[in-house]
Amino acid sequence: AMKHILGIKASRICEIYRMGMPIPPGLVVSTEACGKYYEGNRTYPQGFEQEIHDNLQILEKGVGKKLGNEKDPLLISLRAGAERQMPGLMESCCNVGLNDNSVIGLARRSGNEKFAWDTYRQFIEDFGSVNMGINREFFDQVKQVRMKEQNIPSLIQMSVPELKNLISDYMSLVVKKSGRKFPQNPEEQLWMTIEEIYKSWNYKRSIAYRRMNDLLWLKGTGVTIQSMVFGNFNNHSGAGRVFSRNPLTGEKELYGEYLMNLQGEDLTGGRALAPHSIEKMKTEFPKIYKELVNYANILETHFKDMQDFQFTIQDGKLYILYSKDAKRTATAALKVAADIVHEGKSRECEAISRIQPATFKFLRCEQVKPSPTNKLLGKGIPGSLSAATGEVLFNKEKVQEWTNKGKNIILVTKECSSKDYIAANSVQGVLTQQGGTTSDFAILLRDIGKTCVLSCDNLKIAEDLSSGMIGNHQLREGDVITLSGKTGEVFEGDVPKSIIEIPKDYEEVMSWANTFSRASLKVNAFGIEDVKLGKYLGAKGVGVYRTEACFLNPERLKLIRIALFTDNMDLKNKKMQELEQLHKEDIKAILTEMDGLPCYI
Fold this sequence. Notes:
The protein is of the alpha+beta class. The protein is built from 22 helices and 26 strands. Helix 7 runs antiparallel to helix 8 and helix 20 packs parallel to helix 22. The protein starts with a helix and ends in a 7-residue tail after the last helix.
């Protein structure tokens, strides 16, 4: 009920906190404050800064820590959240409050020096990219150079002295790229992050998402400020994201990913290398897995819908960070709606109201039907139900140029984030070197009906973004490949495809919808096949059949061109008569198919 004021994420956090779930304490800045910030020409409302200061003191008192304290620092995360979901499109930042002095206090208080310095390393990366305009790739380059020099195979194997050296390199990079030193004042870090979150509300990608999803009426974003819990604390710590049901198929099973000794932003940001399926947790951490299953059921029963929630494990203790209604494919939307009603968790009218009408345009997606002659190049994590074929492109900056040329594009990239939303809308599919199916970007891709395969085995991309390798097979810009989002397979060339069948739950869910409907559904058709499909899907007639559409196939266009441009009147009349007969046959077929139902032609 408070989501219009608090934002959907924060309102849910407050509600599940009242349900007694283990959630880190925090405070919420309302969505109204963001609206007033823009109404006031990007200035904060009167008294706003003092109100944040006062409430932050209440949080500090509650947890017994103080922001930036050199002996026992409070570290906080700041996350955006509007009244409607905008997955990963706005900025966020974790570990705010760390500096050259408080990192030493964190190391002493935790008794884990490596954890403290690794957290500082990650904070500099996040804060530098979010608040100081430094491309994250620059941090990655510095990191790779340092690891190569010291022959370190992975970041997790860095010693404390090596982490300190890397942080020193980062500090030099910050000065070089931003022209100023890394901020050491925690209050300055806090206000720089709030400012950037508000700015991100009007980033091009955020506006594009709101426009495409009819959300331009939203006034602004809220900000959730929470005390940090740490998935990188030790080997008994980790982070993950789970769905109470499979968001691809709707099956009733815990679906998700996790990684140990890692903070959750790497997972949701698409930077994690091949995260583990949540199934592995059954045997690796059975107690935590059992808790997750229990919380998933409690949340789903309470909110009467499939849930998506992020969690952190700190030294063996589970924390739930937030929960929200899960994004899902059209197939999953129908199955979840039917099953939740059958299980008694929701009424039919409630289940129907939660299905987004726009998802239906992706209901009949394509899937590959490979033959023995189709060459399999590699395999990654399946991220969607659909399949796509297109030309390989490694450089995101060239997507618009290729789109303008009418090319079908498969974007092949090291990683993708929701910041690439505009580019993603223009491609047919995405193949990544790292990241998982629960990243914000993978969820966005499914939401807009795009095909994705993630963390492809042995995929390497050249630094100049001109070519790549999958195992021993070289990929060049412009090569044609096919992705199977359902199986995670990557094929050379164009592979035969078929349209998937309408899910069996469609008829039942639509029968419920018809009982509540006050208007009949009609199909807009461009030919007899559209009419047949529309009738099968429940259309009660043809709303619009555009007569010009029946002339668009190549054979009929040939007749039109002859009729228009020939000087031979006998030939012109003959072709016009042929067109007239074809037109009559089309209309007869439509009227026959609809069998007395109204048809507007």
